[in-house]
Specification:
By secondary structure, the protein is α/β, with parallel strands linked by helices. Helices cover 32% and strands 27% of the residues. It is built from ten helices and 20 strands. Strands 4, 6, 7, 8, 14, 15, 16, 17 and 18 form a nine-stranded mixed sheet that branches. Strands 1, 2, 10, 11, 12, 13, 19 and 20 form an eight-stranded mixed sheet that branches. Helix 1 runs parallel beside helix 7.
Length: 417
């Protein structure tokens, strides 16, 4: 029998951006919060993302005809989407749900729910960063999505029309306007879409650590440890650590990213969470005169100006949590980036891979565990964890204090599957 500690009020499992932001919301409301993570504050996937506050990104991965693309994903290990062939049998049930999420009626419901979450996310995140004193980390440069032909732009128009219906502003650029928006692009790009409201941050890890410093000012504490299981009871929940120690808590919030479904399974929730393994290379500052985030949607990656360098990354690889990284994917994006931006200096880069927790309908999991109101879930944000973290923090706080949620949370229910 392991040792037990005194009962904690609220324990958050996971110190990625979502866990950190939830901690900040609860701590500033006067709650005593303990965050547990096996690595550290914002040391995992949240440290290496593309740094976008992508409030206009309301379209899910699932779309009409998506499963017809799976054979290509299997054939091309370096493409924008890829599946490790050895992982396909394990992925098949998730792909079936992914296909169901791509049907027209399901797709429309997802876009509506994602739009509502984004409308909440923007003021909540910007407000939280202002309270934390880190508003200066936000860049207001917008984004530029690039197309190599008019046909490619035309194919993207239905998505832009959906954003227009959601009130998202954008402008299609060509010729001199495109060249002015980002000098130094290869001539192969004939059009682009500028989104003025798109924001990025100076460095996502710096943002995470800045928000944690704010939470810590209100007394939030951190424990570096590995959580093996969570069990619920009428009075609270027990967190079992790998070192044999058990921690009692009145409330537990599972925000462990791509590992969250393992804990949820022990609580009676079979949540189909998969891992979008994302890759990037961060080049030194000055590698290119980058004006704003560039989105090469046809190739599945973005290029982001950060205070700490230029980050070239994205793409989706389905390979689970255990297979080793394939850094050839990072190299392939870097090679393409050099073609697309001929003056790019590709020397001195740092390669990285992270695990994005992805539900088949691209919506996060926010709400109570099936068996207990003392355990809540806050995970499954895919590649939108930074963007949606403050909206999630607000909703979790609403549930903790017994307030009406700021938006309807049914679409994000852990039991929707």
């Amino acid at each position: 029998m392991g040792q037990r500690s005194d009962t904690k009020e609220i324990v958050i499992i996971g110190a990625g951006i979502v866990g950190i932001v939830v901690a900040a919301y609860l701590a500033e409301m006067g709650h005593k919060v303990l965050v547990i993570d096996r690595q550290g504050i914002c040391e995992g996937t949240s440290s290496g993302n593309a740094g976008a506050l992508a409030f206009s990104d309301i379209l899910p991965m699932a779309s009409k005809g998506i499963l017809a693309k799976v054979p290509g994903w299997l054939i091309d290990p370096l493409g924008p989407f890829s599946i490790r062939p050895s992982y396909l049998p394990k992925l098949a049930p998730w792909l079936y749900r992914f296909w169901r999420a791509s049907r027209a009626n399901a797709l429309e419901r997802t876009v509506q729910a994602q739009g509502a979450l984004m409308r909440l996310a923007k003021p909540e995140m910007l407000g939280l960063m202002e309270r934390a004193g880190i508003s200066g980390m936000v860049r207001e440069d917008g984004s530029l999505e690039l197309y190599e032909s008019e046909e490619e732009l035309n194919a993207a128009l239905p998505g832009w029309n959906a954003r227009k219906r959601a009130g998202i502003a954008f402008e299609h650029l060509r010729g001199g306007e495109l060249a002015t928006s980002q000098p130094g692009l290869a001539s192969r790009f004939v059009a682009g879409t500028f989104v003025p409201g798109w924001k990025t941050v100076s460095d996502p890890q710096h943002v995470g650590k800045g928000l944690w410093a704010y939470a810590a000012r209100f007394g939030a504490e951190f424990l570096q440890a590995e959580v093996r299981a969570v069990t619920a009871s009428e009075k609270g929940a027990t967190i079992q650590l790998a070192d044999g120690i058990s921690i009692e808590a009145a409330k537990v919030i599972v925000a462990a990213g791509a590992w969250s479904h393992q804990l949820a399974k022990g609580l009676g929730d079979a949540i189909p969470l998969e891992t979008e393994r994302g890759y990037n290379t961060t080049l030194p500052v000055g590698a290119f005169d980058l004006k704003r985030q560039l989105i090469f949607s046809g190739h599945g990656f973005v290029v982001t100006p950060l205070q700490t360098g230029i980050r070239i990354g994205g793409a989706v690889e389905f390979g689970g949590l255990d297979l080793p990284p394939n850094y050839k994917r990072s190299d392939a994006m870097l090679t393409k980036a050099k073609i697309f931006m001929p003056d790019l200096d590709t020397s001195g880069g740092r390669r990285w891979m992270g695990y994005r927790p992805s539900a088949p309908d691209s919506l996060p999991v926010i709400g109570y565990a099936r068996t207990s109101k003392n355990v809540l879930y806050a995970f499954g944000h895919g590649h939108l964890g930074l963007t949606q973290s403050a909206a999630t923090g607000r909703l979790i706080m609403d549930l903790i204090v017994g307030a009406k949620p700021s938006i309807p949370i049914g679409p994000f229910s852990p039991q929707r599957f």
